[in-house]
Structure prediction request, 650 residues.
Amino acid sequence: MFRHVRFKTPYTYVLLLLFLGLSWGSSVSASTITVKKNRRVSDIQPHVWKIIFNGNNQFSDVILKGQISTESPNFWQKMKFWDRSGHAFDEISVKKDVIRLRNYYQRRGYINVKVNYQVKTGNKDWKKIVIFNIDENTPVRINKVAYQIDSNGANTDEVKKDESFQKAQKKQAYQLGSRYETFKEPEVIGRFTDVFKNMGFAYANVNISADVDTTKLSADVTIQCKLGPQTYIDSIRVEGVKHISKSYVIREASLHRGELYSLKELQNAQQQLFNHHLFRFATISIPDQPRDTSLTLLMRIRENEQRSIELLGGFGTEEKLRGEISWIHRNAFHAGHRFTATARASFIEQSMTLNYLFPYIYNAKSSIVISPFGQHLLQSNFELLRAGIRNSFIYQHSKNFTSSVSYEYTKNKELSQRFSASLPDTTRQYDLSSFQFSSYYNQGFRRQQEGWVIQPYVELSGLFGLAQFKFQKLSADVRRFTKLSSSTMLATRVQAGGLFNVATDSLPKNIRFYLGGTNSVRGWYRQQLGPKRARVDSSGFVRYVPLGGRAMFSFNVEIRQDLNSFIKGFGIAFFLDGGQIWKKVDKFNSRPLQFGAGGGLRYQSPIGPIRVDIGYKLNPTAADLNRYQGGDYGSGWNRIGIHFSIGQAF
Prediction:
């Protein structure tokens, strides 16, 4: 039974209408949101989520991914799920990639390769998995290699017997039984062309022809060599000089009239000019001329400014603020000599140095530098004032190997901190006279270091009775940079050194070995790794002061990972450092190696990599933790070293 209800006030009607309106509006809004949400899901553009290669036995996935335009996001990009730009799925591009892969294989001898693709959907409709199926089949193999040499009247047998030609034959890519890869033709042509041009054939021309049997999958390769005339340098033209004579430029290039043409010597000459302080730009070319036995070379030169001022600045946790100003005269006395006056200042060192460079002694690879200098050095355990002169003979054996012999004489005033409250600081003055031998080998030339870097050093002091201290100091720094992937570098370094035949225990502190710091064993601050003594005053313990030592060993292992796909120029590093300082060379058992581990951030700025590292001492001593005679004067921060600098640690 239904009861008729009467509303007593008009407010009741208003509330009822308001309720019905809200209910209707909510249902409409909810349905609208549902529609919009469904529309967003359905409107998401398909993106490539993963790329798979099947059947690629000869070439890895990494190599094949470099040949196609379709890309899948890496781990970091997949983490940025809100930004899927750059990986949109395009089936036309995938079809073109099939052609690219087919061409890549065919140029490498797989003429019967078959490539197709399929696309699968991942756990979401917009995630597309692109699969390339490859059937490589049997490649074409080289059955015969022949050489046709048109010597233009030269002795063909002598050309064939030449050591460089025979070496090129053994190392060139087209060997019996190897795959016939057409993309290697420029490499083979370039190798033999260089050999002939280094033998004096400036106009040598090399071509390759091949007879390919597609049924037998074999190829007969013929390397055709047209040598042209053997040429000799008849004249050298020089253009672009303003403040120096043309004869000076020719002398610095080490090229001589009448000598046999050599491409290698021409490249070395151009490199020597380019490295010279006077020249900003240098090229050596063969202008148009009759192709006979005489040859005219053309040098084009662009000079640097005669005088300039350079300003440098930086910041680090060790030196704090540092600055440098240099005034350079690149053509002193109009003789091509370079004069440089440099002033440096930081919270650790202030110095003034004059350099006078004689760039040519008996050839362009040899030079002499005379360097008077003055220096004020402020370390944690001593203060040093010294002035002297260093004379160095430098020889550049090749573009990656340089050595030097130096003689240095200095007058020194050292303020040493004593370790007792009852004794004042002491000052001593002494002279040092030493011969120094060093060399530098660098295997790589790219901006990002690769390969080996080796730096040995020998110092002999006190010869001929010219100094108060007699000793021999030997050290070596060996580094290896190994590229693990396109974005990952393994950097390692080993350092070792020793002081021998030291006649007294009171060896000057600046001669001793020290470890620890931004570019050394991280976790320890500058020079803080190794033996120490406590400094006390009338109030008690103040701090520990490093003593240094006569023997040193350290190592660094660092993995550097670029994260350009995440943030351009950004990277991270993880490292393990270790080392020790010993008071004497024969006391290695007295102190074990100590280790520091940690990580850091890198940012490739225009002025170099900005670096922040945090190192943690794995096995610190009581002195490292500021503990003295049972008292703890330190904190948890004594286990940690924070290092900030510009430039890599090594």
Remarks:
- The radius of gyration is 36 Å.
